[in-house]
Amino acid sequence: MIVPRSRLLWLTAVLVLPSSIIAALAPRTTAFAAAAVGTLVAVAAIDAILAPARLRGVRVVLPTLVRMSKDRKGVLEIRIERERAVPKKIRLGFALPPDLIPDHEEITTDLPTENLIARLDWNCTPKQRGSFMIGTCYVGTASRLGLWDVRTSVNTNCEVRVYPNLLAEKKTAASLLLRHGREGVHLQRQVGQGREFEKLREYVHGDGFDEIHWKATARRGKPITKVFQVERTQEVYVVIDCSRLSARPIGGESILERYLISALLLGIASEQQSDLFGLIAFDDKIQRFVRAKNGKLHYGACRDALYSLKPRLVSPDFGELANFIRVRLRRRALLIFLTELDDPVIAESFERGIRLIARQHLILVNMLKPEGAAPLFTEPAASTDELYERLSGHLRWQKLEETTRRLSRSGMRFHLLNPERPAFDLTKQYRSVKQRQLL
């Protein structure tokens, strides 16, 4: 495809229009005017015929896979390959999805004459989490005489994966994450002596009778004591509800978005504690399942499992979830549920379904605290309308308290997370479980 450039338009305006006027006023100059116009037409036609060859052999190559984070500027690495040292200047544009906002709509760059391969970066900011395809790149350059713009399209087939943005939540939870990092030794108060058997040793003054290994004592003829250690490789699963209630907005994003960020940060915390981390995402069926492991590759697998997760307008099926957990998770594990139980019908369904696995696993149930849900007289009301709002919040808080008591009778612990820092509260709960050896 070729289009005229401003140089051709100016030449046309300067040469053709005056020649036509002069030929009309002075008929003797008609031949000269026709020759001038014909020369311009011939030169423009030859330049147009030769123009497509300028982009012959030019290839634009993008990486097959690019990873970015939501609302954080990312970089597309572009490689331009040529078979010969033309053209010298090139213009690029990409057919980007609406959720990828570039810093510039197009790029114009000078290509090096001594190298047939050029590299450049293009910055863009993703506004939504998910997978996006960049399938076409539009390439343009000027013809040899600069009268035409020659344009073509190149297939790129580049996938952009946009992950949740952990930066803001990571700053709030930094104190908890760094305290248990591996950069040095940190003291941590531990309740109890541990539950995992480590070794046998001779009895020393102060050991309890319940710690004596009586069979080893009989074999050796002297008191032998069992030594325990804190279990490190325990299984921790975050169970994420991605049904209709998780699609509700909070703070400019959906509840599910906050859950995904909290789950990934909890995965970092469990990695620092040498525990095994896994994921389960569900609505009316199981959407994602990542078995508990550890390591950088496993964390990448967890990110890949969650980046494309979207809420669906269906009600959660907790019975199906409980059956899945009973079949797949044989070992006792810490199950941290991220779900919305402010609907009494869903809360009753949750209690009835998850009660089946509460005896085998340690279950923590979490949801974001609804706005305004608080006891009636926590703060004085300034007006009648505010009083009614406080009364509505009190009723929501009362229903959540009833849900807390019902779940507690079934051996499950229910917590309300601060909407501004849910990852901090979730990591703090996990630390408490590890410290008290509840698992």
Bin the strand percentage: 25-35%
The name of the CATH architecture of the largest domain is: 3-Layer(aba) Sandwich
Mean pLDDT: 86
Compute the gyration radius: what is it?
A: 34 Å
Low-confidence stretches: 180-187
User: What is the helix fraction of residues, given as a range?
Assistant: 25-40%
What is the domain tally?
Answer: 3
Please tally the β strands and state the result. Answer: 20
Give the full name of the CATH homologous superfamily of the largest domain. Answer: von Willebrand factor, type A domain
Number of helices: 11
| CATH class call of the largest domain | Alpha Beta
Overall spatial form: elongated
Largest sheet: 6 strands, mixed
Distance between the termini: 68 Å
Annotated CATH topology of the largest domain:
Rossmann fold
Structural class designation: alpha/beta
Topology:
Blueprint: E1 2-4, H1 6-25, H2 30-50, E2 59-61, E3 65-69, E4 74-81, E5 89-94, E6 100-102, E7 107-110, E8 117-126, E9 130-142, E10 148-163, H3 167-172, H4 174-179, E11 196-202, H5 214-220, E12 224-229, E13 235-241, E14 249-250, E15 253-254, H6 255-272, E16 276-282, E17 286-293, H7 296-306, H8 318-328, E18 334-338, H9 344-354, E19 362-368, H10 384-409, E20 413-417, H11 422-436
Parallel strand pairs: 3-10, 13-16, 13-18, 18-19, 19-20
Antiparallel strand pairs: 1-10, 2-4, 4-8, 5-7, 5-9, 6-8, 9-10, 11-12, 14-15, 16-17
Helix pairs in contact: 1-2, 6-7, 6-11, 8-9, 9-10
